Amino acid sequence: MLAQVLDYLCTGPGLYLDATLGDGGHAAALLEREPGARLLGNDRDQDALAVAGERLRRFGDRVTLSHGTFIQLPQAWQRLGAEPLRGALLDLGVSSRQIDDADRGISYRFEGPLDLRLDRAQGIPAHERLAHVEPAEIEHALRAYGDLAGARRLSRAIVLAARRGELPTTSALTALTNRVLGGRPTPRRTAQVFQALRMWVNGEAEDLEAVLEWLPAAMEQGGTVVTLSYHSGEDRRIKHALRPPRAVPSRRLPEPAQGHHEGPWVELTRKVVRPDAEERTTNPRARSAKLRAFRRKPE
Questions:
Q1: Which H or E run includes 295?
Q2: Under CATH, which number does the domain 2-96+204-296 receive?
Q3: Is the pLDDT of residue 231 over 90?
Q4: What are 12-43's pLDDT values in tens digits?
Q5: Can you list the positions of beta strands (E) in 247-289?
Q6: Are 169 and 106 in contact (CB under 8 A)?
């Protein structure tokens, strides 16, 4: 959804944030379209930063790279001088390069170690971590991040298998999921399990909360935030944090209080923007993307 992202994001010269730089595709297009733009490009994946760094080298000192999670973004921004942001992009998906890297274990489609970390220099692989948690924690992850039926039954089986050392690989998790949940195995169900555990391993929900709380203080008045989410829970959290509170009276809701605070954002997308049919055909991994855009209001 490159064209839609740029249409909302590019609003003039200034400092822009690409909080999930990936391989640098959005960032390169932004810098080409807006000659007065400078970029703080952040990613928790050091491999991605290396790839993006090469791609963005031609832009010279217009680009500053930062390694870290969303929680660490305020420090990176401060090091750059804390200049108010003209625009910010939060692309919450994982890149095709990460998905296709069997050593990461992010996709059930590739045989590899059950790692799931986006930053392999931090933490421990999923198959080790799962051996040291309670089933209730995994049940919550499967429900909240995977919308998965049978989460309680599967969470108990996952933790037990991990403690026995029986969950070292992606294929082992896929086989366990199919055996425990029964019925006809479907790619969608397996993908939900892998997505939920990846989000849990990387603390992605907590990360999103941190950046949504920080952004109002970092954005300049009139600055734009564009989000791309791929999971209904993330989209709901973005709407709750950035969409202005309801201020229209109705028969079933009380009248707005005097001096009602509408929040710091104006929503630019009246409804969620989805990939068109052509993009869904040429880039099937974008089919679940949901784009929203918001402008920072004057105080």
A1: strand 290-296
A2: 3.40.50.150
A3: no
A4: 999 999 999 999 999 999 999 999 999 999 99
A5: 265-267
A6: no
Give the end-to-end CA distance of the chain in Å, rounded to a whole number. 31
Residue 266 φ then ψ, to 5°: -110, 125
Q: What is the pLDDT of residue 185?
A: 87
- Decide if 24 contacts 52 (C-beta within 8 A): yes
* pLDDT at 173 > cutoff 70: yes
Show the tokens assigned to 242: 């950035």
Which is nearest to 87 in space by CA: 209, 208, 22, 5? 5
pLDDT bucket at 283, cuts 50 / 70 / 90: confident
CA gyration radius, the chain: 20
Q: What's the fold here for domain 120-201? A: DNA polymerase; domain 1 (1.10.150)
Amino acid 142 reads: L
Query: Tokens representing 161?
Result: 């298998």
Q: What are phi and psi of 40, to 5 degrees?
A: -105, 110
Q: Which tokens go with 248? A: 């229209």
- Mean pLDDT for the stretch of residues 91-108: 91
Domain positions in the chain are 2-96+204-296, 120-201
Task: Name the strand (E) or helix (H) holding 79.
Answer: helix 73-79
Q: How far is CA 233 from the centre of its chain?
A: 11
